[in-house]
Write a structure and sequence with these properties.
single chain, alpha+beta, Alpha-Beta Plaits, Poly(a)-polymerase, middle domain, 5-stranded mixed beta sheet, 46% helix, RL, poly(A) RNA polymerase activity, PAP_assoc
């Protein structure tokens, strides 16, 4: 839609600022089960104009109401009562309210079912059914994207979750912000993913530089601590305690303060999100912005990333539990790298984005150069018109035959470079150039990925679309989302027969028979 194109063209910072401001004007209301939407909106409108609203299901029906003016919330808060004193309550007045009907019987009769916005994606089995009816693999990929990507409503709910935490942080640090980063904002988030948020004090630092005028050097008296890490731990500890002790709907609050990046984990029942709160991590925010730019440049980028990630999850290549699996972040980087290498390239390399940066885009963080252009209109659109189905097939072909033993993946340069060390999979961190973002991946997991990629390339090449379409059997992408061997075991056996030379080659790869003599002997056998 036009609206989507317009939001896509905003810089990352503009888009975030707008959404944070929106969240400040928003409240969340738990509604009675039988509800007259018109009467509810009429009542709320007495406190001010409503800019937007939607309903969703999460342990009962909730309404997210965005007012046009922030002072409408104060007006509503003045009209709301404290819960009856059968339980002792913590008298913290948040922006979460419960509405019940005064005359449940007569009012409920007037209620009509409201439209509920989905907050989770459909099951893979349902998705396969939908995909089987599509007329091309490219369309299948866009259907998958549409079903899995974050909706406008879900994004608003995520920013509200951050804004509600900010209400607590503000009590101690009036100028602080709580902002989402990672999958909630980088255009690659899937419905149901966690909300990563961070406490940002950067506005406080900007304020400090302004106080240079006049005859005095002026500064606040502040508590001094031996390290930034200790300050971070103390701040998170106190905010975590506040959420745990005073915040309505905050449960399972865990303070993980000795981690490399200290954080507070919690579940926010009213919005239904699992959340991680940390203190400003500038490089993580630059990574979010970089992915946001790539996601906005060409619609094929997100369609291919969502497809590959869904495929990887179905085949057990990724996992929600940390381990030796490939992560979604690594997969996303592999897709971006693959698209940088097309001829002509579909998206620019990070070095090319850096060349387009102007003065305000220059950022050195902890000694690392994190500069790249923020204005999307300065990036020339690609002349590449390859269809998505060809890109998907080529992605599997490319990584099914990639020389992982020798080469690493570098998004700055957009080309394979020799591995600096012997990790099975080496993907350079785009900013912290001495780090491998896939260091956790072991050899068996990488081999499984390669085998699945080859099998998927084979299936796509042998696709008999016409016959599949008549039978409405899973075909194309739908066939790739069924764990291999389950759809038709006999076909699988025949296919394995036809893979003789390919299988020998992969066996040789895995045995690392580099010696020419032993290689010849093995082929002879």
């Amino acid at each position: 839609t036009d609206a989507e194109v317009n939001t896509r063209k905003k810089t990352f910072t503009e888009a975030q600022t707008e959404r944070l401001e929106q969240a400040e004007r928003t409240v969340l209301i738990k509604c009675p089960p039988k509800l007259n939407e018109k009467i509810l909106l009429q009542y709320l409108s007495s406190h001010g104009n409503i800019r937007s609203h939607f309903f969703f299901e999460n342990r009962g029906i909730h309404a997210l109401i965005e007012f046009s003016e922030k002072n409408s919330i104060a007006s509503l808060q003045d009209a709301v009562g404290i819960p009856s004193a059968e339980h002792h309550v913590v008298p913290f007045k948040s922006r979460l309210f419960t509405f019940t009907l005064k005359n449940p019987v007569s009012q409920a009769a007037e209620g009509t079912p409201v439209h509920l916005s989905p907050q989770s994606h459909i099951a893979v089995n349902e998705l396969i059914q939908k995909l089987s009816h599509a007329d091309s693999i490219s369309n299948q990929m866009y259907i998958l994207l549409n079903e899995f990507q974050l909706t406008e409503e879900n994004i608003k709910l995520r920013f509200l979750a951050c804004s509600l935490v900010r209400d607590f942080a503000r009590a101690y640090f009036p100028d602080s912000m709580v902002k989402p980063f990672g999958s909630s904002v980088n255009t690659f988030g899937k419905l149901g993913c966690d909300v990563d948020m961070f406490l940002d004090f950067h506005d406080v630092q900007k304020h400090a530089t302004k106080m240079k005028k006049g005859p005095f050097e002026m500064e606040y008296q502040m508590k001094r601590l031996p390290s930034e890490r200790l300050a971070t731990q103390k701040i998170l500890s106190v905010i975590g305690d506040c959420l745990d002790n005073f915040g309505p709907g905050y449960v399972s609050v865990q303070k993980i303060l000795n981690a490399r990046c200290p954080l507070v984990k919690f579940s926010h029942q009213p919005t239904g999100f699992q959340c991680d709160l940390s203190v400003s991590n500038s490089i993580a925010i630059k990574s979010s912005e970089l992915l946001y730019i790539y996601g906005c440049l060409d619609p094929r980028v997100r369609a291919l990333v969502f497809t590959v990630r869904c495929w990887a999850r179905v085949h057990g290549l990724t996992n929600s539990v940390p381990g030796t699996w490939i992560t979604n972040f690594s997969l996303t980087m592999m897709v971006i790298f693959f698209l940088q290498k097309r001829s002509p390239p579909i998206i620019p390399t990070l070095d090319q984005l850096k060349e387009l940066a102007d003065e305000k885009d220059k950022h050195i963080i902890g000694g690392y150069d994190c500069s790249f252009v923020s204005d999307l209109s300065k990036i020339k659109p690609t002349k590449n018109t390859e269809p998505l189905d060809a890109l998907l097939s080529d992605f599997f072909e490319y990584f099914g035959n990639f020389d992982f033993r020798k080469n690493s993946i570098n998004l700055r340069k957009g080309k394979e470079v020799n591995k600096p060390e012997s990790s099975p999979l080496y993907i350079w961190n785009p900013f912290e150039q001495d780090l491998n973002i896939s260091k956790n991946v072991n050899q068996p997991q990488l081999e499984k990925f390669v085998a699945m990629a080859r099998e998927s390339a084979w299936i796509l090449q042998k696709e008999e679309k016409t016959q599949r379409m008549i039978n409405k059997e899973p075909w194309g992408l739908a066939a790739l989302l069924i764990p291999f061997g389950k759809s038709n075991p006999s076909k699988m056996k025949n296919r394995m027969k036809g893979m003789g030379s390919e299988t020998i080659r992969s066996l040789l790869d895995s045995l690392k028979l580099n010696n020419a003599n032993s290689l010849q002997k093995a082929v002879g056998k």
